[in-house]
Amino acid sequence: MCTREQQLGDVLCFLHHTEEELSQKQDPSLLQTLCTGSYLDVQKTVAWFSMQVATIWRATHRAHLYNVKVLPSSRSWKLQLTDASSGEKVHVELLFGLQQGNLDLFLSSQNAEAIFMPSTTWPQSCAAAERKYFQYVARTARPNSCHLSCLRLFAHILVDMSFSTYAIKTLVLHLLAIIPLEDWRRRHFLSRLENLLRYLQYCLNDKLLNHFLLGNESMPDEVVLPPAFRTASPLNLFQHLEQDPEAHSRAL
């Protein structure tokens, strides 16, 4: 903003002028549109993005093929596309993320497991780093590896059984690091499913499932993480089971 003010003079830098001066001399800036105070606001970002898409969609060559409806959501952008001829509906959800420097870590608009989360809170997400690890496995493993099929089926089996998809993904990631990749061929599919079930039972008995990235010093270099991640103490994803015996009994 400083550079633009100095070179073009068509806007005032919102970091070095008072709000009163800004409001008198120009339209609201993106700082005012997207932020609460000096913090990026998830809900304002979602509202602004929805408005932009609605305007742009009408100008696209596919606008007459689909009816677009933005669904209510405070921390993500949800869209329903309805085929104008068949009536078929497709739902799309888009999460917003801010990359932390050049790391494979993002601040995400996704809700964390909290009772209340202010709209200016962006929890840290490791999803991009975990995806890069899966890509690393895909390049290293044989073409007929069954690890993704195991993940999909196992997640489908355990849906609505008090296990988060993140915990299931973490189980698969740990087993990929333990079991040699040549033993993930399609003919080993049932054996790997059995390993997943036994590993889950082991973790439940001990009430312990460590986060895959924190404290993992054997991550490949292509997964870019801060040094503190590799040397950190492991984070137990099943810690809540230690504090809630009833939840632990249900999980068993």
Would you kindly provide a written description of the structure presented here, covering whatever features stand out?
With 252 residues, the chain is an alpha+beta fold. The protein has a domain at 126-251: Poly(a)-polymerase, middle domain. 43% of the residues lie in helices and 12% in strands. The protein contains 11 helices and 8 strands. It has helices spanning 2-7, 19-25, 30-34, 42-57, 127-140, 147-157, 165-178, 189-206, 227-231, 239-243, 245-251, and strands spanning 35-36, 39-40, 66-71, 77-83, 89-94, 97-99, 106-108, 124-125. The strands form 3 sheets. Strands 3-4-5 form a 3-stranded antiparallel beta sheet. A 3-stranded antiparallel beta sheet has the order 6-7-8, with no helix packed on it. A hairpin with a 5-residue loop joins strand 3 (66-71) and strand 4. The radius of gyration is 23 Å and the shape is globular. The model has no long low-confidence stretch (mean pLDDT 89). Residues 162-214 form the Mab-21-like HhH/H2TH-like domain. It is found in: Membrane. It comes from Bambusicola thoracicus (Chinese bamboo-partridge).
